[in-house]
Design brief:
Helix content: 40-55%
Order of helices and strands: EEHEHEHEHH
Distance between the termini: 15 Å
Number of helices: 5
Structural class: alpha/beta
Largest sheet: 5 strands, mixed
Strand order of the largest sheet: 3-2-4-1-5
Number of strands: 5
Length: 134
């Protein structure tokens, strides 16, 4: 997602980032996306070890925008504020759950619940409620 300062009006999509400084978490999907567009948009990339570091740099005007995931943005916006999300998602990032390799029964139960929630719409409803519009 493209994140800007709360009072930013000029940046609405990543096409508006020409000549700007963009913060990303090193190795994240936002980093990959930024590197793909870096030469074409002539953006300067500033990498950080954690998304919260990039978001704090944005709020302090050290960068013009940040590419980060929705979970990191929502947590930061609730805790510290001063930033907003603009435009649509830059990439489709799946939300994952890790299960120990030696727990096939647990994995089967989790997958069954996820499948049921997908088919009856609960998963999409939770996604919108907790990640898109928290």
């Amino acid at each position: 997602h493209l994140i800007v300062r709360a009072n930013e009006a000029a940046i609405q999509t990543y096409y508006d980032l020409t000549g700007k400084i963009v913060g990303v978490e090193l190795g994240s999907t936002g980093d990959v996306f930024a590197r793909r567009w870096q030469r074409r948009l002539k953006i300067t990339l500033q990498t950080y070890n954690l998304p919260v570091e990039a978001l704090r740099a944005l709020r302090a005007s050290h960068v013009d925008a940040v590419f980060t995931d929705l979970i990191a943005f929502n947590a930061f916006a609730r805790a510290e504020g001063g930033v907003k999300r603009v435009g649509d998602a830059l990439v489709n990032e799946p939300v994952v759950m890790a299960v120990r390799k030696d727990a096939p029964t647990l994995l089967a139960h989790i997958n069954a619940v996820i499948d049921a929630m997908k088919s009856d719409g609960r998963l999409e409803q939770l996604y919108v409620e907790w990640l898109v519009n928290p």
